[in-house]
Protein: Synaptosomal-associated protein 47
Amino acid sequence: MSQDIHIHSWPCSYYLDTRKQWVSGRLSLTPVAIRFTADKTGELLVDFHLSSISEIKKESSNLIFSSLTILEKNTKHWFSSLQPSRNVVFNILEHFWREQLLSSQGAGAEAAALQPTKGKELTGLLTGSQKRLEDTAKVLHYQGEQFENIMRGLNKIEGDMDVADRLLTELESPSWWPFSSKLWKTPLETKPKESATVSDSKHQEGILIRIPVIITHRTDSNVKPGKLTLFASGLEISDCNSQVLHRFDSKDVDDIRVHTPYEISVRQRFIGKPDTSFRLLSARMPEVIPILEMQFSKKMQFLEDALGFVGARKSPQVDLGTSIWQAATGLLGGVVQPSSPEGGREGMDNDQVQLQKQEKVSQEEAKELKQILKKLKGLALETEAELERQDEALDSITTSVDRATLNIDKQNRRIKKLT
Structure:
């Protein structure tokens, strides 16, 4: 993904210390940097990395103007006349700055360790694939539970249709028929309450992913920090105190618009009253979008600024499975059976020897890779079996619906004759 993706920009003024004057322009935010461009000259006056920021504060300039200050290394940058408001810009900048610090700390910890090898890179790739497959399995498991609930509902409908059929038969029977009263004595089939089991499964539902977000509700200009939580059955938006602002079940979501790789909007339409809509911005949104695609593929809409992200992300995935298995097989094979004897290295220069050493996979890494591949294979088999079960359930549901439709039509005709 390009680091020059434009996340947000705001009209504002910047205090240029060399000229001792305020310059109007636009403050821009990218995933890794902050920039300010002057309106009149188009000159780039500010351009620094988020990781170089040590402090972001709300202050006042000349005791009058509300300003935003950013301390970058030993330089303090002043921004004022921020639109739509200083709080909006502060919340967004602080969010991306903190997330950048967290990622930088993780990168620093990795850099402090040994130089990453091909084995570690492949382990990370397979671990990511395992996480995606686990998320897919959770979603499919929830869909399987929904199919079971539908089947129970259809079975109850069929039972009610049988009762209705007996009642209609009683009504159609002549008054002198001696056995008609027995039809009324047929005990109704009682079934346990299913709503409790459905609600219990919802409360026991696992979390797919939870990320910090900046929330804008409907068309309000104010933004506030919060959290986005994805479940297999939908998504939940809460504030920074973990108080739930709104929960969207899968059936409630009408559309999800991806404005940029870092910003989405979720909407539920209503007739006769305003839609429920939330706009969510997060530095970790690229982790969430693939899961949303899996859950709401028909409801996702990628706008122009996000189309490049989709192409860049999807194109390598076409052969992702093949590349993973081929790379794993090749690397593991290289550990068990080295491809070239020691004598074959005599003609290599130092760079080639060093490159070959770097591409080696240690026995510990190979063991870890084998374990991950074994888990992936098990997950893949479980997912395939679940898909087959859901195909069978869909066929059964379709048959039951067709049968119920025919029975309803038949009973409607019988009722018309009686009336």
In short: DSSP finds eight helices and 15 strands in the chain.
